[in-house]
């Protein structure tokens, strides 16, 4: 097969797949419908759009994207709290950071379950996401008011809300 024939064949396959499996991706209206339910619509949209797949994603992929972003944030926060715990010389603060490490470990496990359910398109069974918000608040509320962790906690809360509302939208959409 010549290279021209090969290129032509690939082009025909790409055009055919676009016709047979059209994907308009997630529209701004869908993002707005999902994110208007959150504490901060612009931040929710920015979180989802931070993944380059969002623009061409269908709703099932958007669920996975939201959960992958949540997993990434939980992993980053977990690592931060491990470092805070290791670097702290105050025993009470070290214990509190240890509680946060445990909370974020719990989150990581729940997110893995949610990712697996999303892969199986079992959106109605993804019911632990609200726990992410409670665990993040629990961690932050245990820390002194002058703690520098509020920024990463806020990011976790907003990312959690985003995943919650994406998956609630899917439950409504798919019935």
UniProtKB/TrEMBL annotation:
It holds the Pfam family PMEI. Keywords: Disulfide bond, Signal. It comes from the Eukaryota. The keyword Disulfide bond applies. Residues 26-165 form the Pectinesterase inhibitor domain. Gene3D superfamilies: Invertase/pectin methylesterase inhibitor family protein (1.20.140.40). The keyword Coiled coil does not apply. Residues 1-25 form the signal peptide. InterPro entries: Invertase/methylesterase_inhib, PCW_Enzyme_Inhibitor, Pectinesterase_inhib_dom. Belongs to the PMEI family. This is Pectinesterase inhibitor domain-containing protein. It comes from Salix suchowensis.
